[in-house]
Amino acid sequence: MIAAHKKKWLFPSLLLGITIALFLFEPIYKTYSYTMLPDALANYFTKNNGSVFTVLPWVGYTSFGAFLSILFTRFKSFPNLYPRAISIAAILGLGLMFISSPIFITLYESTGIEVFKSVALNNYLFIRLGDVLVVFAIFMMLRHYLTDRTVLRIGQNTLSIYVIHFILLYGSFTGLGLYRFFDHSLSPAIAISGAVLFMIVCSYAALKYEDHEVAIKKQLAFLRQNVMYRIEVLVSTLQKLLKASLERLVRIFSVSKG
Questions:
Q1: How many Cβ atoms are within 10 Å of 119's Cβ, its own excluded?
Q2: DSSP three-state, residue 78
Q3: Which of helix, strand or coil describes residue 89?
Q4: Interhelix angle for 81-98 vs 124-141, to 10°?
Q5: Average of pLDDT values for 200-204?
Q6: Where along the chain do its domains lie?
Q7: Strand, helix or coil at 52?
């Protein structure tokens, strides 16, 4: 019984532990250049080669989201789930936003462990996690009003919105994103109005993608098959040409020797 209970909490504890570890030790691993890895792999972990959005430490928010999803799934029939969840999320969020840095300073002064000081001096990860929890609490309070079909569809397509926003903002494929041309160059009024317009455009594009997702995937599959066929034809033609060239060279050498 005890073993089963422990196993039940092993995975969510692991997810929460990943978040805490990634955020806590970020001052250490962000200095690594990962030169032992090929650049194509190292770019997932370091910005030294021009990457904008690395796996570390941001996957910590993903693991925390998975942790929350497990909690809500397991306690979905729990009485007063949302009132308690809202209170806990709001209190933890405000705590991370306003007192996490002083706590890390206190830990540093008590233990002398340098990493606590490093986190406190650049505590953007835990503070941002607090922002997430506060916003999460607000959305939970407004859950009864967020029943519009379009709003629900937007919530179901956040991955598509993320991909589209990253392509437009950072130029994932071409490097020619909006960030490259407007980084720190806009006035607050234009930046805010532009951000709102940008969110609308990304959401609209994601919804349109959902409407035509099947057709788009069919077209991509057809394009892939067409490209693979052309590559196979090209390889076959090159093999025949190479074989003919080798046979000709063999005949030439045979004649010269004769």
A1: 24
A2: coil
A3: helix
A4: 150
A5: 93
A6: 147-211, 213-258
A7: coil
